Amino acid sequence: MIKRFCYSLAILAATLFSVGCERLDDQRIPPAPVNIAFPTVGDWNVLGVGGALDYRRFIKEELIPADYHYSAISATGFGGVLLVCDVNGNPVAYDLSCPVECKRDVRIFVNTDELVGECPKCHSTYDIFTLGGHPLSGQAAKDGFGLRRYNVGPGRGDYMLVSN
After folding, report:
1. Which pTM was predicted?
2. What whole-number distance in Å separates Cα of residue 127 and Cα of residue 147?
3. Does 23 have pLDDT greater than 90?
4. CB–CB of 150/164 below 8 Å?
5. Across residues 99-126, what is the average pLDDT?
6. What architecture is domain 25-163?
7. What is residue 22's predicted lDDT score, i.e. its pLDDT?
8. What is the rounded distance in angstroms from the CA atom of residue 90 to the CA atom of residue 45?
9. How far apart are CA 155 and CA 164, in angstroms?
10. Is the distance from CB of 161 to CB of 35 less than 8 angstroms?
11. What pLDDT digit, counting tens, does each position of 42-95 carry?
């Protein structure tokens, strides 16, 4: 009985060790302020993400989306913010900059045919709807570079807030 328990424990430890060997680097994009506020439920319903696989891009410098009212304290990260609604209906936010390229103006886009985030330059793809920005293919997958994530949740006085 004890022998069987020790054997099972050894298999579990080996499995956990082998799974833990692969590391995800989701901090390659430099830290930058993020503050996208949705003061009311109505603001969230119009400008946020409403259901599974919905997405929206926020880039303050380019006033994207045009109908969002950016303020002096609004900030959209290093290269912009990709706000998505995952397959479970939960809002998730990522920096738009590709972690392979690390440039403000090389931004991932949502490939709606494949339902992934994709870099137009290196063509790396990222799982943005189920695996939290993990790389799927390309140089990002080879190097273990994931998308930088931001917090999404209720804010003080705001219905929802995207922040870092």
Report:
1. 0.85
2. 9
3. no
4. yes
5. 97
6. 3-layer Sandwich (2.102)
7. 63
8. 14
9. 12
10. yes
11. 999 999 998 999 999 999 999 999 999 999 999 999 999 999 999 999 999 999
CA distances from 97 to 59, 65, 127, 131, 151 (A): 11, 17, 15, 18, 16
Identify the residue whose tokens are 């997405």.
55
Specify the residue for token string 């709606």: 112
> What single-letter amino acid sits at 89?
G
How many whole angstroms separate alpha carbon 105 and alpha carbon 96? 9
All structural domains of the chain with their residue ranges:
25-163
Q: Which two tokens stand for residue 19?
A: 């799974």
Per mean pLDDT, which range of 13-22, 39-48, 116-125, 139-148 is the poorest? 13-22
Cis amide prior to 135 (ω within 30 degrees): no
**Tokens matching residue 22:** 């692969």
Cα 57 to Cα 160: distance, rounded to the nearest angstrom = 16
Among residues 123, 122, 126, the alpha carbon closest in space to that of 135 is found at 126
Tokens of 140: 């990002």
